[in-house]
Write a structure and sequence with these properties.
Largest interface: A-B, 32 and 32 residues
Number of helices of chain B: 6
Distance between the termini of chain A: 36 Å
Number of strands of chain B: 5
CATH class of the largest domain in chain A: Alpha Beta
Number of domains of chain B: 1
Distance between the termini of chain B: 12 Å
CATH superfamily of the largest domain in chain A: Histidine kinase-like ATPase, C-terminal domain
Oligomer: heterodimer
Structural class of chain B: alpha/beta
Strand content of chain B: 15-25%
Strand order of the largest sheet of chain B: 2-1-3-4-5
Helix content of chain B: 40-55%
CATH class of chain B: Alpha Beta
Shape of chain B: globular
Largest sheet of chain A: 6 strands, mixed
Number of helices of chain A: 11
Largest sheet of chain B: 5 strands, parallel
CATH topology of chain B: Rossmann fold
Order of helices and strands of chain A: EHEEHEHEHEHHHEHEEHEEHHEE
Strand content of chain A: 15-25%
Radius of gyration of chain A: 30 Å
Order of helices and strands of chain B: EHEHEHEHHEH
Helix content of chain A: 40-55%
CATH architecture of chain B: 3-Layer(aba) Sandwich
Number of strands of chain A: 13
CATH architecture of the largest domain in chain A: 2-Layer Sandwich
Radius of gyration of chain B: 13 Å
Chain lengths: 372, 129
């Protein structure tokens, strides 16, 4: 959670205490922000005192009274301007003097709050200022580094859920409006694509269900003694038809019976995801090798493929929700982008670890290690 | 007068196809790209008369990045960012505020579900037709 420092400069203790109270538990969030912002309120009773705090604590926002016992608010304003501090200064004034307003604005005050203010007025001013300040800093950062800013606020889930619906709806509209002519055959591709998108959506819903199971946490976990290699074998069977279709061979290399205390459903999700990925992102004629090892202190699973592989920068993002590698090679491969993040979440539940080694064009290997 | 050329960028091949079909029916010529990267390569040699960009592609903010690049190369090309986000999240994405305009270099945000006739009207308005 980010923190903005607000310095209240006023000789009236009531105003300072009031600001403290009003802003103590106040938070601001905004679609453009990755996180909530809350506030730390600093106080100064005089202009001189405020300058010390400005130098030492670098507040983000200052609520500044002009009429102060020693140096006036306007002098503080000049000091900030001279030092070129990036501080958003708001004047608190008990009476509206146009002359002062003009002068203060010239010296860098950005806003005015009339005094006395209600809690609601102060909060709404601070909210606006926080947003402006945030945007300003983001713009500066963007300009300075030319760097991409992540807009995490974009709700990826709704995007992923709606995309297939929109696609199918779009094709139906094309048909309804006969955009491709009167011949039914003209719409064959539209129909095929619609079916494909619906299939993808079904997969996404399945993954979402898996995810909710995990996210709701341990209460639904059914831990019992299981034989891990049996679960692996059944998962291999599940994906055999798909592998045959893709001309990929799957090998399960394990001899012993491997006992583990775990939720069989969760283990199945792990194998299903790793194996289906290994087949999905493989090359024609490729192979998938699955190994399970019963070590002294751990049980490890290894799934390697001879597929298209990944760049390191892609590996880094692999376990994020909805992350899918988008390239010409993966363009026609559908997936929800949830599989590996689900696997990671399950592995975390067991305090295990998951790692990936990958080389473009050569293939990827996933390692899962569970402590015993 | 020659046909106006509209660049459409979207990583959803289905949406891209549907939008392309629509825009061509409005009487425009289209060029398309399926990713931010592909679009960046495309605009090196080709100047469109207008661009319609998806927001989330390889990066969550691909549309913003692309529009910045487009505007710095061709400041006079109007840009529409088509997003499904606005309607779904209730987020207001207008580009009316001054601070927004500074860094989001798009002229218009449209919801992806927009009706064809509305889209045509907006395109014509931006192209001053």
């Amino acid at each position: 959670m980010a923190n903005f420092k607000i310095l209240v400069v006023d000789d009236e203790m009531g105003i300072r205490a009031g600001a403290q109270r009003i802003l103590k538990n106040f938070t601001v969030d905004y679609p453009f922000m990755d996180e909530e912002i809350n506030f730390e309120v600093l106080e100064a009773a005089t202009g001189e005192e405020s300058i010390d705090i400005i130098d030492n604590d670098k507040p983000d926002i200052i609520l500044l009274d002009n009429k102060l016992p020693g140096i006036q608010g306007i002098e503080v304003l000049k000091y900030i301007k001279q030092k070129q501090y990036d501080i958003y200064v708001v004047m608190i004034t008990s009476y509206a003097s146009l002359e002062l307003a003009v002068k203060a604005t010239k010296d860098g005050a950005l806003d005015f709050i009339p005094k006395p203010f209600t809690p609601k007025e102060l909060r709404s001013s601070i909210e606006n200022i926080t947003k402006q300040l945030f945007l300003k800093r983001m713009t500066q950062k963007l300009n300075k580094e030319g760097k991409q800013i992540r807009f995490q606020f974009l709700s990826v889930l709704s995007h992923e859920l709606k995309a297939p619906l929109n696609a199918v709806e779009g094709y139906l509209t094309m048909m309804k409006e006969k955009q491709l002519g009167d011949q039914v055959e003209n719409y064959n591709e539209a129909i095929d694509r619609s079916m494909e998108r619906l299939k993808g959506m079904r997969g996404l819903i399945k993954d979402l269900l898996d995810l909710t199971k995990i996210e709701t946490g341990k209460p639904t976990q059914k831990l019992k003694q299981i034989q891990l290699e049996k679960i692996a074998r059944s998962s291999v069977e599940t994906f055999k038809p798909y592998a045959i279709q893709k001309d990929v061979d799957i090998y399960l290399n394990t001899s012993d019976s491997i006992n583990m205390k775990a939720d069989p459903e969760e283990m199945e999700i792990i194998f299903n995801n790793l194996i289906s990925n290994a087949v999905k992102y493989n090359k024609d004629g490729g192979r998938v090798d699955i190994g399970i090892k019963n070590g002294e202190n751990s049980i490890s699973i290894k799934v390697s493929d001879t597929g298209i592989g990944m760049e390191q920068q892609e590996v880094d993002k692999l376990f994020q929700d909805f992350y899918r590698i988008k390239s010409t090679k993966t363009k026609h491969i559908s997936g929800s982008g949830l599989g590996l993040s689900i696997v990671k979440k399950i592995v975390d539940l067991y305090e295990g670890e998951i790692q990936v080694e990958s080389e473009p064009e050569k293939g990827s290997t996933f390692f899962v290690v569970f402590p015993k | 007068m020659s046909k106006k050329r509209i660049l459409i960028v979207d990583d959803d091949m289905d949406y891209l196809f549907q939008l392309k079909t629509k825009v061509e029916q409005f009487g425009f010529e289209t060029i398309t790209a399926e990713s931010q990267l592909e679009a960046e390569e495309l605009i090196v040699q080709t100047k469109p008369d207008l661009a319609i960009l998806d927001l989330m592609m390889e990066n969550e903010d691909s549309g913003f990045i692309l529009s910045r690049k487009l505007k710095s190369k061709y400041p006079d090309v109007p840009i529409i960012i088509a997003t499904g986000v606005t309607a779904e999240t209730g987020m207001d994405f207008s580009v009316s505020g001054e601070s927004d305009k500074q860094w989001i270099k798009a002229d218009l945000f449209l919801d992806k579900g927009i009706r064809a006739d509305q889209l045509q009207r907006e395109i014509n308005k931006l192209l001053k037709l």
